[in-house]
Amino acid sequence: MVIGAIGLSLLTIQIDQNYETDVISDLGWAYSLGPNGSRAILSAIAGSMVSVATTAFSITIVALQLASSQFGPRLLRNFMQDTGNQLVLGTFIATFVYSLMVLRTINGVEENEFVPHLAVTGGLGLAIASIGVLIYFIHHSATSIQVDYVVSHVGRELETAIDRLFPQKMGRGADQQRHEPHPSEIPPNFEQDARPVKANGSNYIQAIDQQRLMQLAITHDLLLRIDHRPGNFVVKGSYLVWVFPGDRLQKALAQEINDAFVLGSQRTDQQDIEFSINQLVEISARALSPGINDPFTAIRCIDQLSASLSHLAQREIPSCYRYDEKDCLRVIAKPLTFPDILDTAFNQIRQYGKSSVGVMMRLLEAITVIAHFTHDPTDRTALLRHAEMIHRDSQENITEKLDQQDIQERYLSAMKAIRK
Question: Per-residue pLDDT averaged across 312-317, rounded?
């Protein structure tokens, strides 16, 4: 936006220098009578933009501090990447830069007097636009730190990640739904003859270039088994990939395999479906801590998790076995299953909220909702296991009989939905 402001200032100044027009002079409210008036207008705009930008930065920092204490430091990424905040700060700074660029061209000497009327009018337009952006920023800042907005935003990110990572048709295609390889496809001596590729650094795996690994496996006629998935933390020297046959592993090939792994200091949602789930779980865990004791926020997160997991239950999670175009097994990825995701979503909330009647009831209601969208027996078994753990924890930690009766009713409803 700053570069655009510089370009706009140069364009309007060029027009003022080379073309004579009466359009601006016809707009009496926007027309500057001389160099002194133009300088005063642009100086006022530039000075006010610096003050407003400073205030906006201060408000943003306060919002980040509130978000960090209330929702957790990992959610700061959402605020820092917020397009609205970037647009607002960019508008203020761009208007300031535009005013300076135009201000330097005003010449008050009588022989060479020059006032870029079009450029000055453009500065007025940007100033008026900045007022509108300021009003938007005040509203947006107040809205963006509300828990409902944050939870909904994370939920939208989670559903977007589900759509991206788990489209309707994955793996071998709709006409070849084979999830387990034939025993002859995995060499019986794989464990003995495979050699490991060690990680070159310690960090979180943000993404894995599976196409590159597939190409390497085809080029060198290999079978690769990946020991980690995006979101895992790897330690330098730990095993990333096992290569079979092991005698084909060379130093250059090991480096190419390492290059297929993108490591970073923090997890991202690029290929890590559990990242957004953990954000919702973290909000819930903080809300259920004794210092905050806000079960309503936890219930809001559970509602969002139930919607996202219901959406995920309708998607086909691709097989961890990857085949080339000749139907030859080339890559075995670390599997991610619906029960694993369910554990990530519900275990910690159940552990922190086991003494809260409202939270335990809502967890059972969420399982009931998810069960209506779940058809795989393994997934239903996982839902049954969580329903039993929630019921057992509630019976041990909640002593009021009427509360236990309410939880029992939700438990029976969940069991009925799971066993349909």
Answer: 87
Which pLDDT value is given to residue 28?
55
Cβ proximity of 112 and 6 under 8 Å: no
User: What confidence tier does 368 reach under pLDDT thresholds 50, 70, 90?
Assistant: very high
- Which of 201, 232, 264 is a domain's end point? 264
What is the rounded distance in angstroms from the CA atom of residue 326 to the CA atom of residue 176? 14
pLDDT of residue 266: 86
pLDDT of residue 197: 92
Q: Are residues 196 and 66 in the same domain?
A: no
Query: Rounded mean pLDDT of the chain?
Result: 85
Q: Per the domain annotation, does 80 fall within a domain?
A: yes
State the residue range of the domain holding 217. Answer: 186-264
Asked if 9 and 102 count as a contact pair (C-beta separation under 8 A), the reply is yes
For 24-39, letters b (16+ CB in 10 Å) and e give: beeeeebebeeeeebb
179 is a domain residue: no
Confidence of residue 24 (pLDDT cuts 50, 70, 90): low
The pTM of the full predicted model, rounded to 2 decimals, is 0.77
Report how far residue 408's alpha carbon sits from residue 376's, in angstroms, rounded to the nearest whole number. 25
pLDDT tens column, 27-57: 555 555 578 888 888 899 999 998 988 888 8
Q: Which residues contact 371 (CB under 8 A, 6 or more apart)?
A: 380, 383, 414, 417, 418, 420
* Residue 169 confidence (pLDDT) above 50: no
Residue 329's nearest CA partner among 344, 339, 319, 338 is 319
Nearest to residue 36, comparing CAs of 92, 95, 111, 113?
A: 113
173 assigned to some structural domain: no
299/315 Cα distance (integer angstroms): 25
Residues 252 and 301 in one domain: no
Nearest to 333 by CA among 182, 195, 179: 179
Q: Where are the beta strands (DSSP E) in 276-395?
A: 321-323, 329-332
In a domain, 367, yes or no: yes
Average pLDDT over residues 220-239: 91
- What is the rounded distance in angstroms from the CA atom of residue 316 to the CA atom of residue 110? 77
Report how far residue 9's alpha carbon sits from residue 132's, in angstroms, rounded to the nearest whole number: 21
Are residues 246 and 378 both part of a single domain? no
Q: Are 259 and 305 in a shared domain?
A: no
Find all residues with CB under 8 Å of 144, minimum gap 6, and list them: 63, 79, 82, 84, 85, 150
- Domain count of the chain? 3
Q: Is the dihedral of CA 184, 186, 191, 195 positive or negative?
A: positive
